[in-house]
Queue: 2 jobs
Job 1
Amino acid sequence: MQVPLQIAFHGVDTSAAVETRIREKVAKLEHYFDRITGCKVVVGRVHRAVSTKDQPFHVSVVLEVPGAELVAGRDPKDAKGHQDINAALADSFSAVERQLKSYVDRRKDKRAQAH
């Protein structure tokens, strides 16, 4: 993996399995664009209730590319979070993947207009 990757867990135990899943998802993003300059992923739970195990997961992804920063993740204050960590990861990475594809398309359009 070429992308400098930072993974943080807040209010959630660190998990090697989750870290591996994140690394796989970031590697997939590299297939769409190989000039990603950085990626930060934060996995956490919202702390509104007495029991954190009942709180939804929140995953935010910040993808750095030349000239832009792509951000995806559910607002932690949104009550409609994911109870399943894999669903939360899939949701956030799908959103950042759509943004990355749009970014790549815009770059292609600019290059085509320049020629």
Job 2
Amino acid sequence: MKTLHDLHRPLGNLGIHVSPIGLGTVKLGRDQGVKYPNGFTIPDDHEAQMLLKLARDLGINLIDTAPAYGRSEERLGPLLRGQRQDWVIVSKVGEEFEAGQSSHDFSAAHTRLSVERSLKRLETDFIDLVLVHSDGNDLHVLTECEVYQTLADLKREGKIRGFGFSGKTVEGGLRALQDGDCAMVTYNLNEQGEKPVLDYAAAHGKAILIKKALASGHVCLSPGVDPVQASFELLFGHPGVTGAIVGTINPLHLAHNVATAAAVIRRQA
């Protein structure tokens, strides 16, 4: 079985090594207002436990969650009990999701409250990486709000090991990497506009996590081309990419994604 155990790579310069595929967990906590082509049922605790065990067996140690993912964080706390040393946990600040609505708050007070709440929910003393969940006004959030400075303070206090930005613009990504450790960017077969952020990260030893790595719309590929393979060839062909967050609750898809990524990365090495 192809796994990622021997393919872990540095998360920028944080001294943390992560699997090139990370497990996104929005589907463990939220089924409203999500942009997926098909509906899905949130897995129960047993199904979630089996998914996490499979991910670990496949060599995945990177897990991505957020307060905006409904009950994701509070479910992961108990689900990962006794396994903290096996996982690199990424969470977010800035976006809340309540009663089917998203709202944003980038103040110092809310940032601190959000991280403290995530620590409690996740039942941990520290979070490996906290990203700002941008509302799209990236430069405004980074330069006019207190969120980034507050995350830097929390890093000094040891509550988080690193911080960064999940944004929507090239300018935001570049600015975020100047002072932060990681940018989460959209990069896939359909959307490559944020590539300058990847280039900057590669040149400056910063981390890049890819969201929407397997964008829908693979119909543009020739018949017989595996869209997952083509996606990973693009992503992992760029030296700036640390890992891709893939949010699946389907064990077969997870195993296929890992096997494909492992094969692509070995071929490219």
